[in-house]
Design a protein that fits this description.
The chain has 479 residues and is of the alpha/beta class. Helices cover 39% and strands 13% of the residues. The strands form three sheets. It has a six-stranded mixed β-sheet with strand order 4-5-13-10-11-12, sandwiched between helices.
Length: 479
């Protein structure tokens, strides 16, 4: 168990000279392989199925997911201390492109891409917030942290994956590949990230959104960034089906997490967490789950650090789902007997309102290999958790409310201990979900008590009336 965060903050940090980067990133390589090859490790012969990252391919010959496989033997030419020092030396710098939290790990992400082809907003390097008051007062925990991935260019963790995907598309277009644009189905955040990065590279973006199922703050982002937006009368799963059909007929690059390039960027958030703890491994990491690519991305980042000697273990992972869209939770509770998609109901955690997740196999693999757990949150639980967190100085999204609900349940059951170092991943900025917060605090949500609502007090423009209200408030706080 690591020492307390307060104690660590006063320790002098050792100073070492930054290592020289590898002579050329071209000494490293990566390729697509079937995800089944990763899970079985049984078919690694020279004739095994694989594809260059410069090919436009999303599925294996048998229809299974693909995964990006790095040349680990080449990376292992450098020991763990080398990689730790190299990555640490790049944090906060402006040297292109290494000031990005993603591209500071370029050798582990897209090793063969030219720096000139990279499209980056220096994403990543997001705040790891010590949730001191929330942890101590409400959970009797002293080492609770929130990784604010939403403090990013477009306000969500999707930037981490999109910088990688759009950079590769930029490379492919310069190679004269017949791509007219990039398309995605989205519940909000994916479309925001895609449209922003495509706009920066002058690449057309096409977005399929489920009508009336995302917040206005999320809808306005792709519109403002010049995307071609289709509002479709279906849910996310329906949009996903349509975009897959479209991209199979037109030269539009698919940007959803079916495309494993996105996960290469998202895995860097796990590496960042280790960096921020001076390479000490937390006990638990809790991630909201919808399409389920993110839980696998975190596993992949942690596992890569272990395999290359940067750390000696990985955290236990928890995937948190909304009860209204919980196919992974039901699968987990059945003892992994049989997966059944569900028809997702409306949830305030709209980005994870997905009943048939593309990355189900990836998520199960990650959880089984990290001794992981799946938990769920009802609508009232997630909204109360969001309000409680906000009242301690945070301003989180409903999806983080799902993750905090999972934490609360696991803490109360004793599975997570009071001294366990625990990280909750916050996936989007709370400002994207202001309407849900307004509805909660004005008690406008049907069939929800909104027990932590804090509406403004209406008072006359009169000194005496104001004094009476203030005295009542201060007396209530004192008691």
């Amino acid at each position: 168990m690591a020492s307390s965060p307060l104690f660590n903050s006063f320790l002098p940090k050792p100073t070492t000279a930054a290592p020289s980067p590898p002579s050329t990133s071209l000494s490293f390589s990566a390729k697509y392989v079937p995800f089944t090859a990763i899970t079985s490790s049984s078919d690694s012969s020279p004739t095994a199925e694989s594809y260059s990252l410069d090919e436009i391919v999303y599925r294996s010959r048998t229809g299974s997911l693909l995964d990006v496989q790095h040349d680990m033997a080449a990376l292992k030419q450098f020991d763990g201390q080398y990689w730790r020092s190299l990555f640490d030396s790049r944090v906060g710098k402006t040297t292109w492109p290494y000031g990005s939290g993603v591209w500071s790990k370029k050798e582990w992400v897209l090793p063969e891409i030219s720096d000139d082809d990279i499209v980056s907003a220096f994403e990543g390097n997001t705040n790891l917030f010590w949730a001191e008051r929330f942890g101590k007062v409400h959970l009797d925990m002293y080492d609770l942290w929130v990784k604010h991935c939403g403090i990013s260019h477009t306000g969500s963790f999707k930037d981490l994956g999109m910088t990688v995907l759009v950079s590769q598309v930029n490379r492919l277009r310069k190679m004269k590949r017949p791509l007219v644009g990039v398309g995605c189905a989205s519940t909000g955040d994916t479309s925001a990230a895609l449209s922003a990065y495509c706009a920066a590279a002058n690449i057309p973006s096409i977005v399929f959104l489920p009508a009336n199922k995302i917040s206005m703050a999320q809808l306005v982002q792709p519109i403002a960034n010049g995307a071609f937006v289709l509002s479709i009368d279906t849910d996310f799963d329906g949009c996903m089906k349509l975009i897959r059909q479209v991209t199979s007929e037109l030269p539009i690059y698919l940007a959803n997490s079916l495309n494993s390039l996105r996960l290469e960027g998202q895995k860097t958030a796990a590496i960042e967490i280790l960096q921020q703890f001076d390479w000490e491994v937390p006990d638990w990491v809790i991630v909201p789950g919808g399409n389920l690519g993110n839980i696998y991305a975190f596993y992949k980042g942690f596992n890569m650090c272990q395999e290359l000697g940067l750390v000696d273990r990985i955290p236990r992972l928890v995937c948190a789902q909304a009860a209204n869209a919980n196919p992974l939770y039901l699968y987990y509770k059945s003892g992994w007997q049989e997966f059944q998609p569900v028809r997702a109901s409306t949830t305030f955690a709209s980005a994870i309102q997905i009943g048939d997740p593309v990355s189900i196999d990836r998520a199960v693999f990650a959880l089984k290999n990290s001794n992981g757990i799946v938990e769920e949150a009802t609508e009232e639980e997630l909204m109360d958790a969001m309000a409680l967190a906000d009242s301690t100085g945070m301003f989180i999204c409903p999806h983080t409310g799902v993750a905090l609900t999972a934490l609360t349940k696991l803490r109360k059951s004793g599975i997570i201990g009071p001294t366990d170092r625990t990280v909750v991943v916050s996936t989007a900025h709370g400002l994207k979900f202001t309407q849900s917060k307004i509805d909660y605090h004005s008690r406008q949500i049907k069939d929800m008590s909104c027990r932590l609502a804090n509406p403004p007090v209406q008072v006359k423009s009169d000194f005496g009336a104001v004094m009476d209200v203030l005295k009542n408030y201060l007396d209530s706080r004192a008691s």
